[in-house]
Design goal:
Blueprint lengths: L4 E5 L5 H10 L3 E5 L3 H8 L10 H10 L3 E4 L7 E4 L18 H10 L8 E4 L7 H12 L6 H4 L6 E4 L9 H7 L2 E5 L2 H11 L7 E5 H32 L3 H8 L22 H8 L5 H25 L6 E5 L14 H11 L4 E5 L15 E2 L2 H7 L2 E4 L4 H4 L10 E4 L5
Parallel strand pairs: 1-2, 1-4, 2-3, 4-5, 5-6, 7-8, 9-10, 9-12, 10-11, 12-13
Antiparallel strand pairs: 6-7
Helix pairs in contact: 1-3, 4-5, 9-11, 9-12, 11-12, 12-13
Bound molecules: ligand SAJ.
Length: 415
């Protein structure tokens, strides 16, 4: 096998599980991250993120010496870049992707590249990012040849293989999902397949780097558009006095219909972000994708409006807010519509806010001191309005009769 030593650049939600799974196949893995705390934590056999069972795998591969973390890149047979691609800050709504992390990663690995190496971009990226990465590498290493110059004969192979794992199921999906492999030449693709085959049980399907980039953005945009459709339906159904959950269940009985679920809005760092990469690259032709983003981004405001009008009916409204995370059964509060709604309700003085979030022990700073974190029993006891924001398993088993005397606003349809 040509991959004895693999380096993973970026040890976050994707990089760390990937590094750990490859290491568990007996390959020597060097994890590189700029965050000294993350590096130290991993070298102690611990993890700095939350993902089921990841701690066990990391502890195992660190103790056997197959995974080691460092802040300084060193030579390897393959480099997998898994760093963030956020937006550039701007007020004009252009959502221009910020490739600085990919550029910094390229500049960090360039000095240690050797003839025969494979460099893979895993980060979800706008179309053209892999070619840019190859250009940055070539600029830094004029002594080596790259696929944009020499195709199959290049010294360094470059490919894009977007991650597609679902938070909460990362360890299973890393192994079982099919992978889209977009090499910059045929040899690049073949070598990337060889690397992924060391740990992927799904199929590895070869395409171009640009198509692979667009495939990932398409998957998340498809979901975003479908959820926007559901969110729009939920508002229409409110106005027409129809139960949207019953409606969608009925429509989904049709063999060719599969509408997703409405909610309080779309959160997380993927579905709410990636469609903008398409819109930014072709603004005049991405009308539907843009409107879907806007529909989903406006949903929290609609929910806030409903709560405020319900609260108006009480002298001293007490609102139990069930859930803060961006989706069920995780502790991740980043880009969470639930958190946004709770923050706004506090700002607009909707009433006393009692929050239940079984997956966190402390409230985030931005709402700490302004709302109470409580048990489900206490919250239901004191509340006159119950606002369901996340369909955590602890809430799905609640008995409906506990809520009979309450005003119920169920954004997830669990009741
Ligand atoms: N949501 C709804 N209704 C639904 C489904 C989801 O409102 O019917 C909301 C969730 O509550 C959450 C948001 O959408 O706020 C996103 O959740 P998600 O479960 O749809 O997706 P993520 O962001 O956790 O992970 C997605 C996945 N992409 C797809 O399913 C196409 C995952 O496979 C990707 O790897 C991940 O994005 C990523 O990293 O890009």
């Amino acid at each position: 096998m040509s991959f004895k030593k693999v380096s993973v650049i970026g040890l976050g939600y994707i990089g760390l599980p990937t590094a750990a799974v490859i290491a568990s196949r007996g390959i020597e893995v060097i994890g590189v991250d700029v965050n000294q705390h993350a590096v130290d934590t991993i070298n102690n056999g611990d993890i700095h993120i939350v993902e089921p069972d990841l701690d066990i795998v990391v502890r195992g591969v660190v103790s056997t010496g197959n995974l080691r973390a460092t802040t300084t890149p060193e030579s390897a047979d393959a480099f997998m870049v898994a760093v963030p691609t956020p937006f550039k800050h701007s007020d004009d709504g252009s959502h221009e992707p910020n490739l600085e992390y990919i550029k910094a990663a390229s500049e960090a690995i360039a000095p240690v590249l050797e003839k025969g190496n494979l460099v893979i971009l895993e980060s979800t990226s706008p179309v053209g990012a892999t070619e840019k990465m190859a250009e940055w590498l070539a600029e830094a290493r004029p002594d080596l040849t790259f696929p944009q110059q020499k195709g199959d004969g290049a010294d360094i192979n470059v490919a894009h293989c977007p991650e597609r794992v679902l938070p909460g199921y990362v360890l299973q999906e890393l192994v079982s999902n099919d992978r889209v492999i977009g090499g910059m030449s045929k040899v690049c693709s073949d070598r990337a397949v060889e690397l992924y085959k060391t740990f992927v049980r799904g199929e590895c399907i070869i395409t171009t780097a640009r198509t692979a980039e667009m495939a990932k953005l398409t998957e998340n945009s498809f979901r975003d558009v479908n959820i926007a459709f559901a969110n729009e339906l939920s508002i229409i159904c409110d106005k027409l006095k129809i139960n949207v959950w019953e409606l969608i269940a009925l429509a989904n009985r049709h063999p060719r219909v599969n509408v997703l679920n409405p909610g309080p809005g779309v959160g997380g760092h993927c579905i709410a972000v990636d469609p903008w990469f398409i819109v930014n690259s072709c603004p005049e032709h991405s009308k539907l994708i843009r409107v879907a983003r806007e529909v989903n981004d406006l949903k929290p405001e609609y929910v806030i409006g409903k709560v405020l009008s319900a609260a108006d009916e009480f002298k001293r409204p007490v609102i139990a807010c069930l859930g803060l995370s961006f989706k069920a059964d995780i502790d991740d509060l980043r880009e969470s519509p639930a958190l946004e709604i709770v923050k706004e309700l506090h700002k607009r003085q909707a009433g006393r806010l009692v929050v239940v979030e079984p997956n966190v022990e402390l409230l985030p700073n931005e709402i700490d001191g302004s709302v109470e974190l409580a048990s489900i029993d206490y919250a239901l006891d004191v509340a006159n309005i119950v606002l369901v924001l996340v369909d955590h398993k602890e809430f799905r088993v609640l008995e409906r009769n506990k809520l009979l005397s309450k005003v119920l606003i169920d954004t997830r349809g669990i009741f």
